[in-house]
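Supplementary Methods, section 5.1.

A reviewer requested that the exact input to the structure prediction be made available. We therefore reproduce it here, unchanged from the version used in the analyses.
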Amino acid sequence: MTIRSLISAAAQARSLQPTRELKAAELFAPAKTQAIVLANLLRSSAKPVLVIAATGRQVEELSTSLSELVEDLEVIDFPAWETLPHERLSPSPETVGKRVSALHRIAQLKTQKLQRPVVILMSIRAALQPLIAGILDYEPLQIKQGKEYLLPELTLKLIEFAYERVDLVTKRGEFSVRGGIVDIFPTTADFAIRLEFFGDLVDEIRQFHVADQRSFQAAIEEVVIYPARELLITPAVAAKAREMAHEFPNLTEMLEKISNAIPVSGMESLAPVLAEKLVPITQYIKTSVAILLEPEKLAARADSLLKTNQEFLHAAWDVALSGAQAPIDLSEGGYIDLPELKSLLRGDRELLEIS
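The structure derived from this sequence is encoded token-by-token as follows.
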């Protein structure tokens, strides 16, 4: 069966009809049947399927439903920032870790033949936000029990990944060093991990509770560490911040910290001028099919996001940029609109809309 016939059959089986005439690439499946429709599609697809929903909550519900309906399904969740692109606040390290790990997994799938169904789920908020180009240039840090690592180099790598060095690890994105013991709370982990070194050799890796700092009894063999920020302070980023510090007096403190490789809350808002370039999510996700669920809801949500983010752009930056010696355009970091997203999705994949 073709993808279109699978979807049409699922809708017709319930003797339900749309209340308006559908477009050529639009299909009808009432809310309660959408998971069934998607499940049929996933079972027949030889490539990952991208599904975009209106909200994060809808994504969570779909993830649960599809996992129950499709045997051995791999669900890749690409979450949205909990902050807006122009808001002078940074997304949490946990969110960043999930996003970057999802992108790495999607990149792996490009070179692999699927052994099981795969679905990529994201909200419209995640789909509309541009990403920093080259975000996958930084491979995750893999630490294995029984291998040798130079402690100074490991420390520098964690700092490069925007982990904060503290005396006592209590939350994701932090690490501490005490003699031959390194505590790290990876952005994608449920528990912090403790590395016990014997010289340069990682002798043991154990998980521990941050509440009482006590290690689990069982050791683990490997830990994978993803960055705590999407905008990493590379030499190029630091140099750009150093140049801008003299041009924007109200941002001097923020830019000087960045130029000294010190992460600052909200620095992601400056990505359009600090990073080499930003690209749409479609640059990172190559699938044969993309599905937009409930396009009318998506359009309303997209319009609301664009307006709200534009308000934050003026509220957060108009005063900060006053008195500057040169203009600065941060608009590239904002959400793209839904028509542009659709156009990008149609570029090299089939785009279906399920109303």
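The longest strand covers residues 201-208. These observations are discussed further in the main text.
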